[in-house]
Amino acid sequence: RFARGELVAAAIHLHAVEGASIDANVEAVRGDSAFHDAVLVAFARREQGLLVAEGNPRKLATIADLAATRVRVATRPKGAGAQLLLEALLARAGQGIEAIEAVAPPCPTGPDVAQAIRAGRADCGIATRSVANASGLGFVPLQWEVFDLVIRQRCYFRPPVQALVSFLRSPALVARAGELGGYDVAEAGRVRYAP
């Protein structure tokens, strides 16, 4: 919808199969002509990992453990950022998505992954530390991800967007990120890429 001009801004958190050192968000915006008039604004870095039952009874420590132990994995819908992360981490470990035992249907959100684990339908799933904290589940950290906003250049300086950018730099956002846990908003509001 962003490419068709229907949106002013969109949130993205992409992952490169080649490794976490590649800035997948910048590469996606830079490499797609649909984003020729977009700027990338930092929102947060957030800690992603495996949600597990309290105490981590299956003793999961790495992404490779998902295939090795054949645990039941709550997945997210195709194209969701957490699903892209799961697929990228598996690929880096030399595995494909078919190597894990994915439970059906996919979970629409991180809190739905938590519910699948609490209900006993899944043993684990990818979500943020904040979801683990809110749901009282265990958490196995895997990677910090960059979560950005893509904003149309022609809209960036308009008052509503500037109000959003100002909020990203506010003490209120810093305080809320601290409450949730697993968020780093030190760079929030900074332009990370502009063509």
Sum this structure up briefly.
The protein contains eight helices and eight strands, in the order βαβαβαβαβαβαααββ. The protein is an alpha+beta fold and 195 residues long.
Model description:
Strands 1, 2, 3, 4, 5, 6, 7 and 8 form an eight-stranded mixed beta sheet that branches. The two termini are 20 Å apart. It is globular and about 50 Å long. The chain contains eight helices and eight strands. The mean pLDDT is 93. The chain has 195 residues and is an alpha+beta fold. Helix 3 links the parallel strand 3 and strand 4. Helix content is 34%, strand content 26%.
Task: Describe the secondary-structure layout.
Blueprint: E1 9-12, H1 24-31, E2 38-52, H2 64-69, E3 72-74, H3 81-92, E4 101-103, H4 110-118, E5 124-128, H5 129-135, E6 138-152, H6 153-156, H7 159-168, H8 171-180, E7 183-184, E8 191-193
Parallel strand pairs: 3-4, 3-5
Antiparallel strand pairs: 1-6, 2-5, 2-6, 2-7, 2-8
Low-pLDDT stretches = none
* Proportion of residues in helical segments: 25-40%
Q: State the distance separating the first and last CA atoms.
A: 20 Å
Radius of gyration: 18 Å
Please tell me the overall pLDDT.
93
Which structural class best describes the helix and strand composition?
alpha+beta
Descriptors for this entry?
single chain, globular, eight-stranded mixed β-sheet, 195 residues, 8 helices
